[in-house]
Design brief:
Blueprint: H1 3-16, E1 21-24, E2 29-32, H2 46-62, H3 68-81, H4 90-94, H5 109-121, E3 123-131, E4 136-150, E5 153-160, E6 165-170, E7 174-183, H6 191-196, E8 208-214, H7 216-222, E9 235-236, E10 242-248, H8 251-259, E11 265-269, H9 271-286
Antiparallel strand pairs: 1-2, 3-4, 3-7, 4-5, 5-6, 8-10, 8-11, 9-10
Helix pairs in contact: 8-9
């Protein structure tokens, strides 16, 4: 080892780890002035600590309350292991950062753990599920394949034997559940490809090419984000707007997303989506003219 490397290591011990170093003239080397001092089992920088804090805060607010207790325990253990100047003080750090989470439905922590075990063990689960779309409660036997957290909502993706098809289930709508002894054989399932065919929650049918034109005003915000995994490069229009293109099978969810932009967005394709948006806008406009929405239909819920 070179002399430069040794000096660098000594400097690291003294300045970064706060090691109690002393020079021993008799042995012409360094030793610890406190015989009981030990190297910390975890070496962490302030930047790493900041990243950990941010992940804890995001997890508590966006993954839901089932994770709060284990996260606090992880912080406690980490604090106990750290030595030197770096400390985990979440309360102090919270004074400098604010996270605003969406309104999240409550999810039973035991349900989340049981579904995770069922996926790992390839065991069927029987659930009592309330569908907000149909306002019905049914019993389902499901082969669980994947858990997705979509803007804070926990969604189970699995094969539903009642419908004989793949379905998404919002865990907050599961009222009772039971892990069954029956195991299932996993078929090939690509969670990433499955997610690409949806728009947020909704799947179903063949993905279609969606084209939406935003005017100059709304284009400022559309340019700032990536809105879908299959999104193509934005097309700039002569009037300062943009055209957003992506592929999705979840047209009902796309419709609800487009409606929030009002007159600043116009669907170009597919024709089915143009019709859906047009009908809802006409029904909404009628609420402010003759007081009722002719022909209006209830919008479907998120996962069925």
């Amino acid at each position: 080892m070179s002399r430069r490397q040794i000096l660098y290591d000594l400097e690291y011990l003294r300045d970064r780890l706060q090691a109690p170093l002393a020079y021993d003239r008799r042995r012409k080397g360094y030793c610890y002035s406190e015989p009981t001092w030990m190297l910390p089992s975890i070496a962490i920088t302030q930047g790493e600590l900041m990243a950990f804090f941010l992940s804890v805060e995001v997890a508590q607010r966006f993954l839901g309350t089932p994770f709060e207790a284990p996260l606090r325990e992880a912080v406690r253990k980490l604090s106990r292991e750290l030595q030197g100047d770096v400390r985990v003080d979440l309360e102090e750090m919270r004074r400098h950062y604010t996270f605003s989470a969406p309104a999240l439905p409550s999810v039973n922590a035991r349900l989340l753990a049981d579904v995770t075990d069922a996926i790992r063990q390839q065991r069927q689960v029987r659930i009592t599920y309330h569908s907000a779309h149909n306002n019905e409660t049914t019993e389902r036997s499901v082969d669980p394949y994947h858990l997705a957290n979509i803007t804070g909502d926990w969604v189970l993706i699995g094969f539903d034997h009642l419908r004989d098809d793949w379905r998404d289930f919002l865990l907050a709508r599961v009222t009772h559940w039971q892990m069954l002894p029956k195991r299932f054989e996993r078929v090939s399932f690509d969670a990433e490809a499955y997610a690409e065919s949806a728009f947020r929650y909704q799947h179903g049918g063949e993905p279609q090419r969606v084209e939406i034109r935003f005017d100059e005003y709304q284009a400022r915000w559309i340019r700032e984000r990536k809105w879908h995994d299959t999104q193509e490069p934005l097309e700039e229009t002569p009037d300062g707007g943009v055209i957003l293109r992506f592929r999705s099978a979840g047209l009902e969810e796309v419709k609800r997303w487009v409606l929030q932009y009002g007159a600043h967005a116009r669907v170009l394709a597919p024709e089915e989506l143009r019709r859906m948006v047009g009908e809802d806008l006409r029904a909404a406009a009628a609420l402010y003219t003759d007081g009722h929405a002719p022909g209006g239909t209830e919008p479907p819920g998120e996962p069925s």
